[in-house]
Design a protein that fits this description.
By secondary structure, the chain is an alpha+beta fold. The chain contains 5 helices and 7 strands; from the N terminus they run ββαββαααβββα. The strands form 2 sheets. The chain has a 5-stranded antiparallel beta sheet. Strands 1-2 form a two-stranded antiparallel ribbon.
Length: 172
């Protein structure tokens, strides 16, 4: 495709500019396709993915994160402050202090609070990045729900304690 602009000059002559748009149109199409591809990767991911400001404003999240926390929709969760996801203010403060020192945290176990108040155990990878538009510090998270694994570990630990106690008592 070609874009043409023409203007009549005061002396009756015409000044024209022609510009080839094919490459620009192809680039815009590739950009749209890339955006759709990555949006789908985030939305279809089993891992919870979300972003917050340092102050706790939840900027974005995927459906997996919404489901992990027991909320009904992204809109429902985006209206909340991340501080409500913690059982105490010190939990969030400790997290922010640790992240501030290192800039990123990997394979960190954490416990967040679901909408109904019950705990959800997670492994998280997170990093502090600059928003490319606002240049504000934001935190990006990728989390996996390990609640079932933690329940199994606790049951196993309790069973070991019971057998150890029984063994000790039988030795007397």
């Amino acid at each position: 495709e070609t874009e043409v602009h023409a203007k009549m000059l005061s002396d009756g002559r015409y000044l024209g500019v022609a510009r080839e748009l094919t490459e620009r149109i192809k680039s815009e199409q590739k950009l749209r396709e890339s955006e759709i591809k990555y949006r789908n990767m985030v939305e279809r991911n089993l891992a919870g993915i979300y972003q917050t400001t340092i102050q706790g404003k939840i900027l974005s999240c995927n459906n997996a994160f919404v489901k992990m926390l027991g909320y009904n929709s992204q809109k429902d969760l985006l209206q909340k402050n991340a501080a409500i996801l913690y059982f105490s203010d010190t939990d969030r403060d400790d997290f922010l202090t640790c992240l501030g020192k290192k800039g990123e945290l990997n394979d960190r176990e954490t416990m967040l609070k679901k909408k109904d108040g019950s705990p959800v155990y997670m492994i998280e990878n997170c990093s502090m990045v600059k928003d490319i538009i606002t240049v504000e510090d934001i935190i990006e998270w990728v989390v996996m729900d390990i609640t079932e694994r933690k329940k199994i570990e606790n049951t196993l630990h309790e069973s070991e304690e019971t057998f150890r106690r029984l063994f000790d008592e039988s030795a007397d």
